[in-house]
Description:
Blueprint: H1 14-26, E1 32-33, H2 45-57, H3 69-83, E2 92-95, H4 97-109, E3 115-120, H5 124-132, E4 136-141, H6 152-157, E5 163-167, H7 179-192, E6 195-199, E7 222-226, E8 239-242, H8 245-259, H9 264-270, H10 277-300, E9 314-318, H11 326-337, E10 339-340, E11 342-343, E12 355-359, H12 364-380
Parallel strand pairs: 1-10, 3-4, 3-5, 5-6, 6-7
Antiparallel strand pairs: 2-8, 7-8, 9-12, 11-12
Helix pairs in contact: 1-11, 2-9, 4-8, 10-12
The protein binds pyridoxal-5'-phosphate.
Amino acid sequence: MKAARRGDIAPFYVMEVMKAAASREAAGGDVLHLEVGQPMTPAPSGVRRAAAAALAGDRLGYTSALGVDRLRERIARHYDEAYGLHVPPDRVAVTVGASGGFVLAMLAAFDVGDRIGITEPGYAAYRNIIEALGLEPVGIRVGPDTRYVLTPDLIDAAAPLDGLVVASPSNPTGATHTPGELLRVAGFCDRAGIRLVSDEIYHGITYTRPAPTAAALSPSAIVVQSFSKYYSMTGWRLGWLVAPADLMGAIERLAQNLFISPPTVSQLAAVAAFDCGEELDANVARYARSRDVLISGLAAAGIERIAPPDGAFYVWADVSHLTDDSRELTARWLEEIGVAATPGIDFDPAQGHRFVRFSYSESTADVAEAVRRIGEWVRASD
Ligand SMILES: Cc1ncc(COP(=O)(O)O)c(C=O)c1O
């Protein structure tokens, strides 16, 4: 019987780590979780209160496909508050997470067979979604020579491209474009007729300077955003797009047919998220402490070749002096010292066997203990 080739995409190896970690915990073992890619905190209290009120008082039926007006207006106001940028609410589409937004952006902007540039290393789901939609992913390697960020030269070398996905701050590297760097990428794309899709899901979680939004730098860029990370709402499945006016009709029709509408209770609650800055910034302050603990602990363990950890809650580390098989290394760490981390192959099929992604979204104490154990392990295996 016919089965589609589009489902024939790569698995997520981190799931193997998570499964092994869960069975170790079920057997009574301890696990320090540096593999997870989500905040350990619940949604901020204002959001939970708004959700309770919505559950008690609202019918929670379908909404309009692009989201409730109140939330679209609040998101638009957020651009004014956070970036000093005027975004009309009718250019905002509320989506089922960044994941749902990414699918809508790809379908609205590209035709089957179009070539879409993605970074290597980069977020694995991009490659997989692009392939599943019948588009062609074109890997663009980023590394220490450009601080792990894209440049016009790197994009040009991948020509011809119809689209380009940039994530800044990046998962898995944390590297973040400066305003000048993103402006050069956006300007190059505009001149070359390449549609820029800018994933800004880790905005708000930055340590040196705020990340610039592509919405301010290019009239044709599509911005993908989410309540999952800074807003600490992964399971609420809510995100948004800021898209050029000429794509909004396509996005609305696609959203109507694919999703009907984003989750209603999440939408009504999320309006409050923008007024929970104090609580959310306290999470970022904790990430900053954990980041320092992780970086200095890794350095003490001799793991020093890392991507610039400007934002998000990840460190992307070159472990080639320890192994040529990061999948085996992370399996051993889990088994021998109870530390779960993600092998790089999830993010970089070609060179990920030499890299590990460490997440520091869990507690600072756990990060400190994990990195102490890694140090001991490295010294013992010398
Ligand atoms: C770079 C990046 N984009 C998108 C997503 C998907 O997020 P969401 O929960 O909003 O669908 C993730 C999740 O880890 C991510 O790291």
